[in-house]
Amino acid sequence: MLTRAECSAAQSRAAAMIKASGIVITAEEAEKVEVADFGLGRLEIEGAQILTLVSTGRISVKVVALFGGQTLPEHWHPPVGDDPGKEETVRVISGTLRFYIPSDDNMTEGAIPADKENVYTARHELIFKPGDQITLEPGTKHWFQAGEEGVVMYSFSSVARDVLDGFTDPEIKRVTEIKD
Ligand code: ZN
Fold it and tell me: Tag placement on the chain: N or C end, fewer CB within 10 Å?
């Protein structure tokens, strides 16, 4: 749950970060930045600001801005009907991104959000700078975290059905609730 004031403050902060990264967005788009707290009510720790540039039945392009230290919780993109699930490429535009996938635990720079040890299972750390990117096969668990200065990235994917994504944390609700 977020208040309307928290939501609009996060929106303008994210829009400013996106513009500063060099990505051109319109005033209308700046007002459409989605603020996701994943139902956890602690946006600065676990959350994301997401601007969808295109989303059709076949492809999706989003810009994701994370504030310094903010974490997008561990999730995966499951198969839906005949579709094997969303294939996703994340490319960093500005800032540093700590990206986690399953494999050997080599975490040094990032930190699991407090009290969430058991719902962040992927511990193989990749450090991405502007121009770095990764392509994930459908079904691969992943989560990511901004470095201190925040991060702006693109997410290019096959069709996105965000509400059907799987999350390791059973507390998560993908649709943000806003209260006045
Ligand atoms: Zn993803």
Answer: C
Distance from the CA of 70 to the center of ligand 1, in angstroms? 15
Query: Domain range spanning residue 161?
Result: 2-179
d(CA 112, CA 144): 10
60-86 pLDDT per residue, tens: 999 999 999 999 999 999 988 888 889
CB 110 within 8 A of CB 66: no
Q: What is the pTM of this model?
A: 0.94
Residue 56's identity, in one-letter code, is T
> Could you give the number of structural domains in the chain?
1
Across 117-132, average pLDDT: 98
b/e code 141-168 from CB counts within 10 Å (16+ = b): bbbbbbbeebbbbbbbbbbbebeebebb
The domain that holds 69 is classified in CATH as 2.60.120.10
